[in-house]
């Protein structure tokens, strides 16, 4: 994707998304999407952490245009910006995951689909690969038919969420009134009886098991430490996904912006490294790329865009974020996303 500087920055529309979405989403669903665990300290710190990253711009580099195109585990994408896995998509828009994937496909972006999706894998549509986010049941064998159907429907990788032995308590949303919210679609991709809890005893061996059971590359999501990242790669992980689950698991977990450099250094090129958490603008994506991420994922923003305008909203969001990234890369003197690490102060 060759991008010229946009005529009109998109930030104002993106900044308005939460307020607009709040008016159309059921109040209980809205609080669930917005809430973090316990005192919500990690949620509050997420975006600010990216704002603290500073750049040394380059000049006289001869950059006339910016090419954002790249690959994530071999999948060609128009930009390094992808859609993180989120539940409740059917609760914010009737087409749910189908609209999310359609919007991501139109923008040339990768989409990670949650195990808790409300749409059967074979009904997702789209003609580009997608990745399956996986929570493992206590009985690992319950996951095998889910994996088989996902592979048959086009899943190109499995993203193992490693930071959720159980959901962290969310004081802000636990007492909400969910009456009127249809959740009959919850976990439709698991054959009955649906698992009522996820495995609380995940080990590094599960990375090896998941790779063998699925036959797909495995990404481990929820990593915040360099030593854990190395052990994941040793167990067979093809990529490490730095995430604190949007501040929804252990409150006061470090921000992903602060964890990312340690993970990148520890992995040392043996696996791709991705990140999410608090990304709200193209300049935040630039910060993540400068700190060493290959892919940068957004979670809540696509949900807001989905709620407002379905696939078109998701496409617009991802296209606007990519345009912002192209602009700030150009201003920084970078021709591609992977020139960004040279921008960090020594």
Protein described:
With 346 residues, the chain is of the alpha/beta class. The chain has helices at 11-22, 27-34, 41-51, 89-92, 96-107, 144-152, 205-214, 226-234, 256-267, 282-290, 300-332; strands at residues 2-3, 66-67, 70-72, 75-77, 81-83, 112-113, 130-134, 155-161, 218-223, 239-242, 272-275, 295-298. Strands 5-12-11-10-9-8-7-6 form an eight-stranded parallel β-sheet. Strands 1-2 form a two-stranded antiparallel ribbon. Helix 8 links the parallel strand 9 (218-223) and strand 10. The two termini are 30 Å apart. Residues 1-11 have low confidence and may be disordered.
Topology (elements, then pairings):
Blueprint: E1 2-3, H1 11-22, H2 27-34, H3 41-51, E2 66-67, E3 70-72, E4 75-77, E5 81-83, H4 89-92, H5 96-107, E6 112-113, E7 130-134, H6 144-152, E8 155-161, H7 205-214, E9 218-223, H8 226-234, E10 239-242, H9 256-267, E11 272-275, H10 282-290, E12 295-298, H11 300-332
Parallel strand pairs: 5-12, 6-7, 7-8, 8-9, 9-10, 10-11, 11-12
Antiparallel strand pairs: 1-2, 3-4
Distance between the termini: 30 Å
> SSE order, as H and E?
EHHHEEEEHHEEHEHEHEHEHEH
Strand content: 5-15%
Shape: globular
Q: Give the % helix.
A: 25-40%
Q: Assembly type of the shown chains? A: single chain
Kindly name the structural category.
alpha/beta
Low-pLDDT stretches are: 1-11
Can you list the strand order of the major beta sheet? Answer: 5-12-11-10-9-8-7-6
Average pLDDT level: 93
What attributes does this structure have?
single chain; 8-stranded parallel β-sheet; globular; 11 helices; 346 residues; two-stranded antiparallel sheet; alpha/beta; disordered N terminus; 12 strands
